[in-house]
Write a structure and sequence with these properties.
Layout lengths: L2 E5 L2 E3 L5 E8 L7 E7 L6 E7 L4 E3 L7 E5 L5 E6 L8 E6 L11 E5 L2
Parallel strand pairs: 2-10
Antiparallel strand pairs: 1-3, 3-8, 4-5, 4-9, 5-6, 7-8, 9-10
């Protein structure tokens, strides 16, 4: 069974940084596309950033210039380096391959507050 396992969240102050990690476990071939999503309290889950095997990366406008997605070569594992965090970044962060995927991990909670 394929599982998405996220980690690295925490409580930080505005302007701080965090690094999130995601590992996909289970019997699965190397994924071509992986992405980070987040769900803020009372809001729908949204796409944050994605990376494909060729190295092409894309970001939501709200995080562009502050977040960096990276991938472990040849592995189904990605990171999200988050800098200059603000209160609007408070959310549970998930990794997956599709916003409409039927299977999601527990996510990792990022709380930004002063």
């Amino acid at each position: 069974q394929v599982q998405f396992v996220e980690s690295g969240g925490g409580s930080v102050q505005p302007g701080d940084s965090l690094r999130l990690s995601c590992v996909v476990t289970g019997n699965i071939a190397t994924l071509d596309y992986m992405a980070w999503y987040r769900q803020a309290p009372g809001k729908q889950r949204e796409w944050v950033a994605s990376i494909i095997n060729s190295g092409v990366r894309n970001y939501a406008d709200s995080v562009k210039g502050r977040f960096t997605i990276s991938r472990v070569n040849g592995k189904n594992a990605i990171y999200l380096d988050m800098n200059s965090l603000n209160v609007e970044d408070t959310a549970v962060y998930y990794c997956n391959i599709n916003l409409h995927s039927p299977s999601w991990g527990r996510g990792t909670l990022v709380t930004v507050s002063s």
